[in-house]
Amino acid sequence: MIAGIDLGTTNSLIGVYESGFPTLLADTDGRRLLPSVVHYGDSILVGHEARRMQAIHPNRTIASVKRLIGRRFGEEGTEGLTGIPGAPVTIPLGGQNLSPEEISSEILKKLKVIAEARHGTEITRAVITVPAYFNDAQRAATRKAGELAGFSVERIVSEPTAAALAYGLDRLQDRSKIAVYDLGGGTFDLSILQLDNGVFQVLSTHGDTRLGGDDLDQAIAALVASKASLPRLSLPDTIRLHEAARLAKETLSTEEQSTIRLPFLEGGMNIEVMLTRAEIEGACSPIIRRTRIHCLRALEDAGIKAADLDQVILVGGSTRMPLVQHLVVEIFGKEPNLSQHPDESVALGAILQGAILDGSLQNVALLDITPLSLGIETFGGLMNVIIPRNTTIPAKAGEMFTNAVAGQSGMRITVLQGERELAADNWKLGGFEIPFAPSPKGAARVGVQFSIDADGILQVLARDTGTGIEKIVEIKSAVEVSDEAVEAMLAGSLEHAFEDMDARIFTEARLKAEEMLPAVEAALAQLAGELPPDEIAGIRHQTAEVTAALQSKETVRLKQTLANLDNATQSLATRLIERAMKIS
Ligand code: ADP
Ligand code: MG
């Protein structure tokens, strides 16, 4: 079993795929988000306990270590740290010099303990997510952190890709484009993805590694300080104020107002400040608006317009703010998909990725869509698709068919699966005969309906609308097709695409020729006396050409000679109609 881990700048999560569902694992207090904070004191504390220590021992506690992972002194994010430019970053903490990998591994170890306690077994394999823009060094360092924590790291996955997977967007149509707007605690990323054969490609990514919920907390803290006319605060009080600002911000995503109470500040101060959503929106708006330019740049880099996007998804806890959601609509001109919890979707995607890798998700993935098209064989041996490939199940679709031959008293329904134009090249799943009263060509009306239930069982129903007689067959194997078989079918349909198309056009022309030739013969027999001999000779010549073309099996030739015959018989057709009018 492979666990999925979102190793976030602010919060980290872990989960496993359990009895068919991606499941996030909570600690003993029921909390699923573990703050990515590590405290080095008498012992190492991680998460909520470490966050509490931040105010008391700021220099023994580190948050946002993700900004430093895989970095060298002098690179972005290392400002304020001292070391030899170009050497891997180390951080002085609790009397030691620690690497970001070592610190991150403490977060991962804690996640491992939480998960094992919850799940009841040892968990040794994991998928870990990283931002799309992480370079090789940052990815390798993240992998190293996982190994230090005792995981075998099966894959490093991009966060936007994981989120898109959690939203189920791998089931969108091929070449769909998705914008992933991720506003977390300390960073903002906008990624444009494109679905290629079921795999997400990152077309572009833009962002700001210094823009997130922390900046909003700071703006709200400043607002509170000015409303309460606070003097300059000590470091621990400043941290308390920020914490209170963050809680108020989170509350105001669902409530209209919230009160901040901070008793016993240094110097014996007590403050109580009421905040409204409108007030904090005023303070946060300029910060949130800074995400806009990154969205526009990412679209430009991907070479697309906002209107080309099929979906916009929100990721990161800060996108729970209504103001952020409004801005997203403004930027993309589209309502974002809100179907997942924004701060859990990356972890859910990591779990799904793990489940795909360890094989537990295979069947489910196949059962969710039709792996190949389903249809019936039509007159002339062609495939008539009723439910196209990649349709989400359950699904239902139908079509009306008629008899191609006069006097026909039944129709054979042959159920086919595959992507080829000719019925014979597809797989035959089953078949049956539906009887109807003998009727002139094209007079019978037979409705055929395909429905696939959630278990992948295909039911084919055919009903003669004349007599009301209906027949139903059930086919169990419509969705359970092995990956190899699907791939072979798709490869075949690509390889034979041109021949297949040609075969379809030829068959359609052949059916038309087989209809026209006897009709022309019959008309000539009726009207022979009324037509000039050279016209009759002309028509005879063209029918001979069509017959020869039919034998040659050349599609272009057959289509051409049919068109010529059509032309040559224009006046014959007119006379036939005039005659019919006179009689009636
Ligand atoms: P990261 O990806 O940076 O690890 P998250 O996606 O967990 O972080 O986002 C954390 C941020 O989301 C914090 O700034 C937190 O205050 C913010 N946040 C969480 N819930 C809400 C909420 N309901 N309203 C506004 N912001 C929220
Ligand atoms: Mg995140």
What would you note in describing this structure?
With 584 residues, the chain is α+β, with helices and mostly antiparallel strands. It has four domains: 184 residues, 2-Layer Sandwich (Nucleotidyltransferase, domain 5), CATH 3.30.420; 75 residues, ATPase, substrate binding domain, subdomain 4 (Actin, Chain A, domain 4, Alpha-Beta Complex); 122 residues, Sandwich (Substrate Binding Domain Of DNAk, Chain A, domain 1), CATH 2.60.34.10; 87 residues, Up-down Bundle (Substrate Binding Domain Of Dnak, Chain:A, Domain 2). The protein has 16 helices and 25 strands. Strands 1, 2, 3, 4, 10 and 11 form a six-stranded mixed beta sheet that branches. The chain is elongated and about 120 Å long. The protein binds adenosine-5'-diphosphate (ADP) and magnesium ion. The site of adenosine-5'-diphosphate has 21 residues, from helix 5 and helix 6.
- Total helical segments: 16
Level-2 CATH architecture of the largest domain: 2-Layer Sandwich
Taking all Cα atoms into account, the compactness measure Rg is 34 Å
Looking at this structure, what is the CATH superfamily of the largest domain?
Answer: ATPase, nucleotide binding domain
Unreliable stretches covering 5 or more consecutive residues: 363-367
Largest β sheet strand count, sense and barrel closure: 6 strands, mixed
**Class from secondary-structure proportions:** alpha+beta
